[in-house]
User: Fold Glycerol-3-phosphate dehydrogenase [NAD(P)+] from Pseudoroseomonas ludipueritiae.
Amino acid sequence: MSSFRSIGRVAVIGAGAWGTALALQALRAGAATALWARDPDRALAMRAARENAAHLPGQPLPAELRITADAGEALEGADLALLVVPCQHLAGVLAAFPPLPPSLVAAKGVEHGTLRLPLEILADARPGLPAGVLSGPNFAREVAQGLPAAAVVASTDETLRQDAAACLSTAGFRLYDHDDPVGAEVGGAAKNVIAIAAGAVIGAGLGENARAALVTRGLAEIARLAVALGGRAETVAGLSGLGDLLLTCTGGSSRNFSLGLALGQGRQLGAILAERNSVTEGVATAPAMLARAAAVGVEMPITAAVADVLEGRMDVAGAVEQLMNRPLRQEV
Ligand SMILES: NC(=O)c1ccc[n+]([C@@H]2O[C@H](COP(=O)([O-])OP(=O)(O)OC[C@H]3O[C@@H](n4cnc5c(N)ncnc54)[C@H](O)[C@@H]3O)[C@@H](O)[C@H]2O)c1
Ligand SMILES: O=P(O)(O)OC[C@H](O)CO
Assistant:
């Protein structure tokens, strides 16, 4: 267990929408905060305009927020790092980074090829570092605006999770501490995939009943994987699982949902992705999660259907037909 106590300084690594929103939240919670952007020109532009024009346009960034592309400067004196780099790039960023203080990973996904969850990527890069996960139903724009939201800080390190949750919480952003980082990570990663499925059935005009069935059965397959990987089913029923499924499968602002919607309307994946400058984690996560599940003998039919659609083996109608024609079984 770490002897981590107070958080005077926070370094946020990754200046996408969520990193920027979390930096604003850390500032609000009273921490001296630095935001690390990988591109020096972008850091310069953000500093000059006090705005993240690429990923969170229109949201003012206060003068107290230090913005830098220098990792050493961002981490100087930091008591806590928030790692907010997309899952597929996390290992690459960590490989080039100086030593980290205790850290929370806020990326949601499964790494292509290695099939690692974000905390596993961090543990491989920094063995023994006190670490946890920050996850929940959180659209960056709303958190940046200070609208009410909740999430969990999950770690096996009790001191880290309790101190980080206490120090980053404000009246507008309520963090619960949790002792099941595996369950939290599986929920956060998998909801991206189920949100693509939910968007696809809505886009294809298959109705609200179909979406409700998908979300509920999606929850069941997420819980199976969480348990197989050493997490708990009850975690999946909390903020980082069900909470995030509710948000992303119904909220039009979800990038995963909107990608599924466009696929359901008959658009091609390549064309949809070409129009985006932001990450849609479910695309790389679906096949990676499916492979990870197969490795531990867990069946994930909805995730398999999403991977089939993303990889062009099936269209949305065919995937839904296949799901509906699976052998009948007991619900649990
Ligand atoms: N946006 C949200 O509302 C939100 C909320 C909760 C969690 N998340 C998670 O946070 C993570 C980051 O998402 P985001 O929405 O902040 O990103 P974003 O889509 O706003 O921005 C993309 C980010 O990816 C980075 N990037 C692109 N190519 C890279 C590379 N080759 N190497 C390193 N970094 C690269 C960019 O610098 C930028 O920071 C994701 O895992 C996402 O699921 C996002
Ligand atoms: O826009 P999405 O689908 O990446 O979802 C963002 C957050 O993960 C919601 O909690």
